[in-house]
Amino acid sequence: MEARKITIEPITRIEGHGRITIHLNEEGKVDQSFFHVDEFRGLEKFTEGRPYFEMTQITQRICGICPVSHHLAAAKACDGVARVDPPRPAKLLRELLHMGQYVQSHGMHFFHLAAPDLVLGFDADPAIRNVFGIIGANPELALKAVNLRRFGQQIIQRLGGKRVHPNFAVPGGVNAPLSPKDRDEILAEFDTMVGIAKVAVSIGKDWLGSNKELASVFASFPSNYMGLVDMEGGLQLYDGEIRVKDADGNFVAQFKTDHYLSYIAEHVESWSFLKYPYLRKLGWPDGTYRVGPLGRLNVADKIGTPLANEELKLFKQINGGKPVEGSLYYHYARLIELVYALERIAQLLDDPDIMSNDIRAYATHTQLPSQGVGVVEAPRGTLFHDYGTDENGQLTRVNLIVATGNNNWAMQTASGLVAKAFVDGTKLTEGMLNRVEAAIRCYDPCLSCATHAIGKMPLEVTLIGANGTVLDRISR
Amino acid sequence: MPRTLVIGFGNIDRADDGVAYFVVNALRRRLGQGILHEDETGLEELGAQIDSIFLVQLAPELMDVMAVYDEIIFVDAHVYENVATLHCAPVFPEFTPATFTHHLTPEMLFALLKSLHHREPAGHIVSIRGYDFDFHRSLSADTEAVVEKAVDHILQLHGPSVMDPALD
User: Could you give the domains of chain A?
Assistant: First the structure.
């Protein structure tokens, strides 16, 4: 067979950005809307042939935003390949690392990306609808927000040696215990950080309380929801079983993460590099689902920390006990998880096992070829790593379903609903762009794995007439 | 004596995207400083007249580090044909919209520094054209050829007072 070389242009490789095309029908009304992800990563193919145990370091390079999630999902998949169960102290330390990432990621998203929409309004001039609007209104709060992110990053650095790409989790456990000094220094800041998170919850909740009508209709749609839960149905972010509920809150499935391929398939569209996962038993597109903070809180019955659990009870009241549908409620759910992550850090640090030196288990004899599945809840949703190896431990198959991929259908649906509500005629308006931006931002997507000072990561919206001509284009 | 912080950022696993790592280490060699290994940022050994660090991304907590310097020089890769292979420009505080990303631009970091810490150091960006963004850790020949020139430019920006053995 003749070999073919496919060249991916650099700009396509590294400039992750969102592109939306809106197609009008003969009557000039919105017919269809597509959310494209043009970035090509190809990591699943590139890593074939690598030793499986390298994946904890390789895969976190997918992203500078949620490297810890990839690091931990890879470590869990490697545990499976090596058929080794890490000791309890190692699991606690991995979860502590994970919570550090949650604090920095959720804190950053709220203050930097979400709060300007909420506090200043969708129609505010983009020149002021940003974090500086927040700083202008409350500079002390902005400094606290930076401090919250620093706290999370420092937990990652204390455990993993680095703030972005840590070297910590290994097949069978972790490579270093927690020092008493680090434990005490993290705990010393706990009350301050919880105080900041409470302020954030108040801001989010107050805004949603004052804008109930908007929140109930804006990018609101029924769907299935997915997230990890423990055996009692409690929220889990590091480990557990995958639970799926439908739009009415009925159980659709609950299964062990190793069995995910029996439950989840991926649909491919020719116009996007990002696939569309869906539940096999419901088929495409009925089996599409939402993940991330809203998905997790919609499937969880409770949260194992007191402050976050009280907020969850309030969250459950929003739609009378049924799943909450409005995309804007992602922000509230994210803040509840921020509180949970902080409280969970204190729980973990109070556990005597976390100071143990029993941090790694070794396989007595590794049986190869092998396979392993690792699943964690990344801040933006459920993350799957699935590896298969040959008899030398070299990877023969890598399947990654990333959180943003799991929400691909949801982001397309959300942006399409906004387009139908706000596009009329042949011109795109700033107000429409603001709202599309805000709708997608609810899902906190991660579309990029490299950043550049020159060149932005724009959102570009193109309006296409019934005859295929481009009627208007707007970008930011 | 003014102090300068050189902040290189990029992804060393994506070939030319990590050019700043090579520039930072070339600078450190010129200054007689130890090089950064691939898992080091340089944040733990600050205190020289010219300090240099390498990061995957710019983040808001960098403000606390930047606040004590008189001059900040960012080093990064770029991908544009219509921008010079070695592109140097001043950086001023400016809001740059972050549609989705958690990353910050140099201008945004400067704007945050000004707003929250009331500090406005001199700022520059040194960008080097990248040609290869595949999954490996070496530079393309065209990008590698610009590394030492970038160091020359950084030292010129800092001024003649700095000790540069290569200039002796």
Answer: 14-39+407-475 (no CATH), 44-363+399-406 (1.10.645.10)
Among A451, A456, A457, A475, the strongest candidate for a mutation testing the B interface, having the largest count of B CBs within 10 A, is A451
Q: Is B118 on the interface with A (CB under 8 A)?
A: no
Interchain pair A451, B130: CB under 8 A: no
- pTM, 2 dp: 0.86
Residue bearing tokens 């590139």:
A46
Nearest CB neighbour to B133, from listed A13, A135, A476: A13
- ipTM above threshold 0.90: no
Contact A455 B80 (CB under 8 A): yes
Answer yes or no: do B135 and A43 touch at CB < 8 A.
yes
pLDDT in tens, chain A (476 residues): 444 444 444 433 344 556 778 888 888 888 877 777 655 456 787 789 999 999 998 877 666 567 899 999 999 999 999 999 999 999 999 999 999 999 999 998 888 888 877 777 777 776 677 777 778 777 888 888 888 999 998 999 899 876 556 789 999 999 999 999 999 999 999 999 999 999 999 989 998 999 999 999 999 999 999 999 999 999 999 999 999 999 999 999 999 999 999 999 999 877 666 788 999 999 999 999 999 999 999 999 999 999 999 999 999 999 999 999 999 999 999 999 999 999 999 999 999 999 999 999 998 777 889 999 999 999 999 999 999 999 999 999 999 888 888 998 998 899 889 888 877 767 777 777 778 878 888 998 876 543 334 444 456 778 888 888 888 877 66
Give the domain CATH number at B134: 3.40.50.1450
The answer to whether residue B151 neighbours chain A at the CB level (below 8 Å) is no
Q: Does residue B113 sit within a domain? A: no
Within a domain: B55: yes
Q: Does B80 touch chain A (CB under 8 A)?
A: yes
**Chain A, chain B: beta-carbon pairs less than 8 Å apart:** 136
Helix (H, G, I), strand (E, B) or coil at A228: strand
- Using DSSP, state whether A445 is helix, strand or coil: coil
Residues 6+ apart with CB under 8 A from A228: A235, A236, A237, A238, A239, A240, A241, A242, A243, A257, A296, A375, A376, A377, A382
Beta-carbon separation of A15 and B79 below 8 A: yes
In a domain, B110, yes or no: no
Token pair for A253: 């499935």
Cβ pair B121, B7 in contact under 8 A: no
Question: Does the residue B33 lie in any domain?
Answer: yes
What range does the domain containing B51 cover? 4-59+70-92+122-167
Residue of A64, A143, A476 with shortest CB distance to B56: A64
Phi, psi of A8 (to 5 degrees): -105, 120
A255: phi then psi, degrees, rounded to nearest 5: -150, 160
Q: Taking the CA atoms of A328, A333, A334 and A335 in sequence, report the sign of the dihedral they define.
A: positive
Q: Which of B14, B95, B97 sits opposite A476 (nearest CB)?
A: B97
- Cα A471 to Cα A95, A463, B34: the distances in Å are 50, 5, 57
Judging contacts by C-beta atoms under 8 Å, the chain B residues touching residue A435 are none
Domains: count for chain B:
1
State how far residue B116 is from chain A, nearest Cα, in angstroms.
Answer: 7
